[in-house]
Records
---
Amino acid sequence: MKPISTAADQIGHGRAGLNIVAGWNKPEYEALGLSLPDDHETRYAYAQEWFDLIRKLWASDTHFDWDGKYFKAKKIKGNPAPVRGSVPIINAAGSPQGREFATDNANFLFTPAIDLERSKGEIADLKAQGQAKGRKIDVLTFSHVICRPTREEAEAFAKHTAVDNADTDAIDNLVNLQFAHAHSFPHDLLAQIKHLFALGHGGFPLIGTPDDVAAGILKLHATGFAGTTLSFVDYVAEFPYFRDTVLPKLKEAGIR
């Protein structure tokens, strides 16, 4: 067997990571003729056995058999192995079962930044949960960038996308699907979550001038997030602002 993460890790000389998703999108399962278990215990038990098998493939130099509850295999061997013996493990989880899985296995846990005051306590709790198991867990989030030379231009474009032209049916469908089968987003902040989905799939909004965007990232850092992904509406047009102004400001603050 050649797990794709190790092939990518070899190609990238040790720069790959693995994002483990236990499954939540029921229509995707049904499209393939599969059933999504309703309970989180079964989903994460399946994910745990899968990851245990993957780790043994990474660590074993010889062929072996696997006789588990969810997986059966004969004379298997993983090749190539990760460059550093393993790769960083990422997981996004909101349910109690998911948080147990993440703090047992992951190096980085993704969680949305909807309310930064609430996020401070959540990050502290996740780190403490990992520490109780002898593990260091860093918490990441995801952000959506609308960067323009002036704040007025950026806010006008945000209104254009998330208010004037929002696809409310699609947003309702996606949010309802998330709330039915996943616990990643806090259910008591529904209106705010719908707005953020219209703006950028639920990401923390980084809207304004390059200085505003830099200040927003610094605020995430001060909250306790170890990092964030960044999505752009128009990467080609917007990234020069980010590269020329935002990145130097982050570097000055000791953030890379």
Note: The mean pLDDT is 88.
---
Amino acid sequence: MRFEIIVPVVLALSFVFSLAGVGSATAVVPILIFLGEEFNHAKNAGLFINVISSSSSIHHHHSKGRMEWKIAMMIGIPAFAMAPVGAVFSKMLPREIVLLIFAIFLIYSGTVLFLSRGKKEERRVSSPLLFLLGTLTGFLAGVLGIGGGALVSPILNHLGMDPKRVARITPMTVFLSSIAGFATYTAMGDIDIYLLIAASVPAVIGGYLGAYVMHHHMSAKRMKMVIGAIYYILAVKTIAVIMG
């Protein structure tokens, strides 16, 4: 295991992705695979990192009185219920199929962020739509080991929510879907304790620093552009892994 690479990579990615309230596993999973980690161990480590970094983000937002608890739980509860289903289903799929779904998902998320435009007035998102979003998020979180924030964030932006408000909603969805997925993968034996230890401390630091910078120094437009570009880069890297 390459601790000298994993620690700074997790620190950097947790920082960047928490700028938009998105779990860093979206980036960590393919990079760990590229570094030679076993696929399901990488997914479980990514989920664990999301649990840690989203906890840090939730604490920061809550301490500032900015958490959007009602909407966060309307998405987070179905996500929590469906993540184990996705994790079990992923064990039935070939590795290449899961990675292909992952690449398509990244391209979609990046495209939505680039095409979405700021609106003067927010749109209200209906409760059934939030529940459906949570259900889909949890399932994909379990399949891909990503926590679900990379799906929730661009869709809520596309539906008309302010990006900074979205960043206060997605950490709870990430936390609930990730902890359920992590527990499921662990129960199935897909766990590397040393990998989890190496990732946890930088994930906490990066997640907290990213949330702080987002509130004080990051514009909504810049936030969307940065995260969208990262999604595209990771999609290319994921396809490269598939082609091997």
Note: The first helix runs from residue 3 to 18.
---
Amino acid sequence: MTAFTAELIGTALLITMGNGVVANVLLGRSKGQGGGWIVITMGWAMGVYIGVLVAGPYSGAHLNPAVTVALAAAGRFAWDLAPGYIAAQLLGAALGSVLVWLSYRDHFQVEKDSGQILSIFGTGPQFPNPLNNFLTELIATLVFMTAVLHLAAPKVGLGSLDALPVALVVLGIGLSLGGPTGYAINPARDFSPRLVHALLPIPAKGKSEWSYAWVPVLGPLAGALLAVAIFSVSR
């Protein structure tokens, strides 16, 4: 398996499981409807576990443009490889979103709450405040990337043996910092699914809220780069 394919498949698995658990909890007449935040955070953590387990041996399992950019900035990953990794991550996230839609297509056809539908594809704030929302994503990704930098040292990514630790890190972030914005901590996790939401023929989907989309892209990138800066100084 090439690194590109590994990043694509790993990210697709991550989003399939992550957005899938949100669909299971939110969509009407789903068997998991009403499962709550603990179920959602566990589902996302398992999505990370599966994605890293599969992609780790072949690409280092970045599965996240913020991770790729941060590792390159830290000198642990070649900048010329970054565009290919990020392209694979964006495509994988889109594929995962489509797979969730296919799995829950009957539910999407009858769901009337556009907000619930959008929540399955993209993150959103409980209190719309761009600066605070940006800081929340920055802080959550700072925690995530700090853990990744210690797990990955001195490698260029996360190997399959690191699947469980990084999944537990994501679980902890979701439980502790996920409330305000839904903890994107990954630009591909939000941008590609939001684009898929805009394109799919879902009857009551409403708007894709692109005015917010910069927050889960720039917040994680800023948080990851700040983690690299702090890590570099502390070494």
Note: The mean pLDDT is 96.
---
Amino acid sequence: MFSGIIEAVAKAKFSNGKLFVEKVIDVNLGDSVAVNGACLTVSDIRDYIVFDIGEETLKRTNLAKAKVVNLERALKLGYRIDGHLVTGHIDGTLKLKKILKRGKTYWLSFEMPKERFAIVEKGSIALNGISLTIAKVDKNQFWVQVIPYTWENTNLRFLRIGDEVNYEIDVVARYLKGILGDRYGLGKA
């Protein structure tokens, strides 16, 4: 389990089923680390951290193409949660549609995910592992507002229009839909 508060940004390279990440955080073999939001297990440590990437993870994420990734180590029980609960189970990727700078903040719009039910104003979403609040919802897109600290300390600043980010919908929304879906005509979770 993670909080969506990024600890570090690092260079990465995917090759032969493995992701090689610059060693900018302390980890041990077997540790769970969110890499662009995907929960991965440390399989080797050298001058870099190595993660084995399974077929399902490769299919659902941007890890094969990512050159710079966000990193967060797993939460420890009893610690404060500053973001929101993030499982590290990526739902898929979304394309960045627009970037607007207003004052010192950035507004980013993304295409609407298939889990439209989870995209609500003031709701949470994890994008590349970053806990963000949905600021505005339109018919085919949603917006997040990014403060200067988050912009400077995550890989969002490297994004260009059309780039894909990993997304994970809010786990509370997922469970509510699963529990109430049939009763209220929301369909399958």
Note: The chain has two domains: 8-73, 92-180.
